[in-house]
Hints:
The chain folds into 2 domains: 2-14 and 122-219, D-Maltodextrin-Binding Protein, domain 2; 26-121 and 222-248, 3-Layer(aba) Sandwich (D-Maltodextrin-Binding Protein, domain 2). Helix content is 36%, strand content 21%. It has helices at residues 2-7, 26-29, 61-73, 84-92, 107-112, 153-161, 173-182, 192-200, 216-219, 232-248, 250-258, and strands spanning 37-42, 45-46, 50-52, 58-59, 76-81, 98-99, 113-115, 124-129, 145-149, 166-170, 187-191, 206-213, 226-228. α3 (61-73) packs across α10 (232-248).
Amino acid sequence: MALLLLSLGSAAAFAQVMPYHADPTARELARDNTVPAIRFLTTADFPPFNFRDASGELIGFNVDLAKRICAEVDVACTIQAWPWDQAADALADNQGDALIAGLSLTPENGERFDYSSVYLELPGRFVTRTEDLPDFDVSGVSVDTVGVRAGSAHEAFLARYIPGAEIVGHDSEIEALQALQAGDVDVFFGDAMRASFWLNDNLDCCGFAGEPYFRPKLFGEGLAIALPAGQDNMRHVIDWALVRLTESGALDELYLRWFPVGFY
Length: 264
């Protein structure tokens, strides 16, 4: 694994298409389904996934995805926002059919809910200053200072696979990125999605370097749609729609619209 990691080359990354996630066999599961409507639940506090614009309208990547899923299977669609601390209980209480709000795929949640296919994975990525991007080589990170969020899975990844790197822990990923911007560390490593938000406001400073690292057991399984346990018909319909949206390029289109600095 370490040799594979160190063999990866350098490349600045901005708006790439998404990896293929959805299960292609899901197309067969929806043929005899008669779901008449999908009641989506979400939250309104996590831009750019789900939030309210200046006029109060609920918008975001997840909101658009929910609408596209309903359109793909040609059913009626409602999307209702709940406070984050109430959303999972609302789903369990049958206030909706599916929760599209980034509910973690933890063992505890798995006891309460089923999940669709993962529609957005969350890789780890290196970030470096713009002037250093052309010469970035992951093998050189072993002699660099690397800013990370202290105690994070990304810190554990570095300690395991690049043991020579001088790891500098920070209270948050934003602080680690600001340290990179200030020249206090040579490289940043952390959650690519969060880094993309920061890079969107700091494109003159820094950019993604090298390849994305997908480590579900370390960095999380990614984003999937939660459903009440046992609602297999609804889950099959959603998975089928995700396959169709992936194959048509619609999922890529949504990703590029909401993440102008792509994190893949």
